Amino acid sequence: MLQSEDPERSGGIRRTVEFQVDQPLPCLLNLCLALQQVLVQSSLLVLVLAFLQQHIWALEGQRDQLLASAFFYSSVSTLLQSWLGTRLPLVQAPSLEFMIPALVLTSQQRHGDWTASACKERCGEQSLTHTDLLRELQGMVLCAGLLQLALGLTGLCGLVLRHCGPLVLAPLLCVLGFSIYREVALLCSDHWGITALAIVLMVLLSQHLRSWVLAAPPGGSRYPICRMVSVLLSLLSVWGVCAALEHLGHFRPHQPSELLPTSRPPNPSHTAPWIRPNSSHIASWPNTNSSQILTSTTQHDSHPAAWLSLPLTAGVGLPLLSARGMAAGLAAALASSISSQSVYLLTARLLGAPPPPAAACNRGLCVEGLGSVSAALLGGVVGVSSSVPNACALGLSQCGSRSTVQLAAILGLILGVSPRLTHLLTSVPLGIHGAVLSVTYTVAIGTGVTYFQYTHMDSGRNIFNIGFAVFMSLLLPHWFTLQPSFISTGVSSLDVLLQSLLTLPVFLVGLLAFLLDNTVSGSASERGLNSGVMVKGWQAEASRPAGYSRQGAAVYDLPSPVKRLVDLPGLRTVPFCACRTPGEHDALSVQETADLLAGRADPRGTGPEGQN
User: With pLDDT > 90 as the criterion, what percentage of the chain qualifies?
Assistant: First the structure.
């Protein structure tokens, strides 16, 4: 039985989460929330792998193996992130920031002279061309991971983050939510009725029924189940409806190859055994026996997936380092670093925690770099970064616990070694995945809008900077996608780098917003820099209540064994100086400096918090 919470007892508008990061959850509730995180992660994985699968012409039957492998190395990175990284409940997954450079790289190879240069005149063998393609994508992921690791160890991202005010974070989070709407619309086109039903259910449960709780025995805890597992309940309900309609013959789910735009392979007569052509385009291929291709692909697709399989891509080998792969890796590393830093702040704001200190951000970036390196060595063709929809799901459920994410990572490891179990997730209709991404990404947009309250929004400077950064970051990627031949410098690696960077909305909005906010003259109060919400790291301790400060700082603390190791005299400088949280004596000196800065910023003595 459901009961409604008393809004007066809950204090009216509630921004606090139901469970803090370190707070344990009941076992059953924790399992439901972990399963919800896995399903949200699978929606992003299906989207990214579907676009990439279409460009490398992989078999539909290979989707289970690709998805299982992505689950495995993403889950390993998630465990490292929750233990050694930022310590926030962040799920790691392949993202749009890795997908776009990979698509640019494959497009350049397909339309250029990649077969001769990559294969070194050995392309007469069937599988060599496409094996080199996958190895070059692995090389891109390896380079991106190493660059992310270097950015984290040197502390460059933490240093840049200190100069990012609300006028940088607000456009960045808004574009982070808007940047995926075209891809999500393709998933939703599977069946708009099913997608609309899933969206309506998620909105109804997470918003209209958010204050309804399950009746509990006297003295027992009451939890707002409808709000906490709104995505899980909606997805399972609509999935059941789709299964019933499919059984009755009124619904047929589509495969990604039926919705996404197709591309012709460079030489159809040399198609490798694992290449799956689209049956509607086989007739137009010259010198190709369509009946043989259809027979071989049908037999391969009908082969059942294995119950247990190690997440290694058989027959691919080690990553192949090339100039174009390294250029695409550089673009992916820059864009994913910007995206991940914004996700750190997004998650902290949704959980009511103080902004993460620079050391925590640097650690998180190092862990993501290690995750991408491990993905490349395991045969992955896309790297990992902090998942935006999973972070936004915390805002919908208003329940963020580290144990939930760790349990979700364990479930992901199980899926990663069992393609047969992963096949269950591939049977979810694409329209449901589109609905999940549609609802979750709206939280990122809404959170970005909330940062505007700390700035002077009637300022002409702010109005222009925000509008210019947002509009150009959405316009330029679309234009350069329509005009891929516009960039032609004569150096293929430079073409890949520029094409990748100019088609990444997150990179463009981060760059434009940062440059405009830090070069166009404006006062600190006009830019929102005096607001207490922008005081980062240990400086926040000087402007918070004592109890809240200790609790907030504990969120980002490393485990005791690791903390003692990093605090050893030999490791305080190189290479972990940027990842080490200041000790107590360092915090006291920084707090005294912050008190002086706070007094200068507000001569009336009200402090930074008085601006809120």
Answer: 38
User: From residue 543, how far is each of 139, 171, 597, 606 by CA, in Å?
Assistant: 46, 26, 11, 10
Q: What is the dihedral of CA 372, 376, 380, 384, to 10 degrees?
A: 0
Does the structure show a pLDDT above 70 at 448? Answer: yes
pLDDT tens digits, 285-318 = 333 333 333 333 334 444 566 777 776 654 467 8
The whole-angstrom separation of Cα 143 and Cα 369 is 9
Phi-psi region of 587 (alpha: psi -120 to 50; beta: other; left: phi over 0): alpha
Question: Containing H/E element for 416?
Answer: helix 402-416
The rounded distance, in Å, linking the Cα atoms of 356 and 319 is: 34
Q: Which H/E stretch holds residue 93?
A: strand 92-93
* Region at 59 (left for phi over 0; alpha for psi -120 to 50; beta for the rest): beta
Dig out the tokens for 342 from the structure: 């914004």
Alpha carbons 57 and 320: distance in angstroms, whole number: 19
Measured CA to CA, the distance from residue 393 to residue 443 in angstroms comes to 8
Q: Are 371 and 412 in contact (CB under 8 A)?
A: no
**Residues 390, 442: contact at Cβ < 8 Å?**
no
pLDDT, tens digit, for every residue of 36-85? 999 999 999 999 988 887 777 655 556 777 888 899 999 999 999 999 88
Question: Alpha carbon 85 to chain centroid distance?
Answer: 15
- How far apart CA 469 and CA 507 sit, in angstroms, is 11
Gap between the Cα atoms of 508 and 505, Å rounded: 5
Rounded distance between C-alpha atoms, residue 328 and residue 326, angstroms: 5
Contact (Cβ atoms closer than 8 angstroms) between residue 228 and residue 29: yes
Of 505, 499, 494, 497, nearest in space to 470 by CA: 505
Give Dmax (Cα) for the chain: 82
Rounded CA gap, 93 and 78, in Å? 8
Do the Cβ atoms of 383 and 331 come closer than 8 Å? no
Taking Cα atoms as reference points, which of 522, 497, 581 lies closest to residue 327?
A: 497
- What is the C-alpha separation between 486 and 477, in angstroms, rounded? 13
- pTM recorded for the entire structure: 0.83
Three-class SS state of 485: coil
Mean pLDDT for the stretch of residues 156-171? 88
Q: Which two tokens stand for residue 273?
A: 């055994």
- Exposure pattern of 405-435 as b/e (b: 16+ CB <10 Å)? bbbbbebbbebbbbbebbbebbebbbbbbbb
Mind listing the pLDDT tens digit for each residue in 467-515? Answer: 999 999 999 999 998 888 888 888 889 999 999 999 999 999 999 999 9
Is the peptide bond preceding residue 575 cis, with omega within 30 degrees of 0? yes
What is the helix (H) or strand (E) element at residue 4, kind and residue range? Answer: strand 2-4
Residue 539: other Cβ atoms inside 10 A:
23
At 20, list the tokens. Answer: 């803090």
Q: Is the distance from CB of 140 to CB of 101 less than 8 angstroms?
A: yes
Of 77, 41, 71, 70, give the one whose Cα is nearest residue 149: 77
Say how many residues make up the chain.
Answer: 612
Give the C-alpha separation, 238 to 241, whole Å: 5
- Are 198 and 235 within 8 A, CB to CB? yes
